[in-house]
Amino acid sequence: xxxxxxxxxxxxxxxxxxxxxxxxxxxxxxxxxxxxxxxxxxxxxxxxxxxxxxxxxxxxxxxxxxxxxxxxxxxxxx
Length: 78
Hints:
Helix content is 58%, strand content 5%. It is built from 5 helices and 2 strands; from the N terminus they run H-H-H-E-H-H-E. The two termini are 19 Å apart.
């Protein structure tokens, strides 16, 4: 599990979200994008990192530093 995936799973747990669709709706993105980010196949844009941080009461810089460390050979920015 990638670091960003752990944050997304934490959002799902904190807000009792049962699906990637519910997660995507909470983040304001399309369900396929939420799924791909969670699986580490897409890198979230800074705006999405900021939303993730806000939902988890984290420092946004923490998420902004983690996102670029995703495997860039597989991932594409969302």
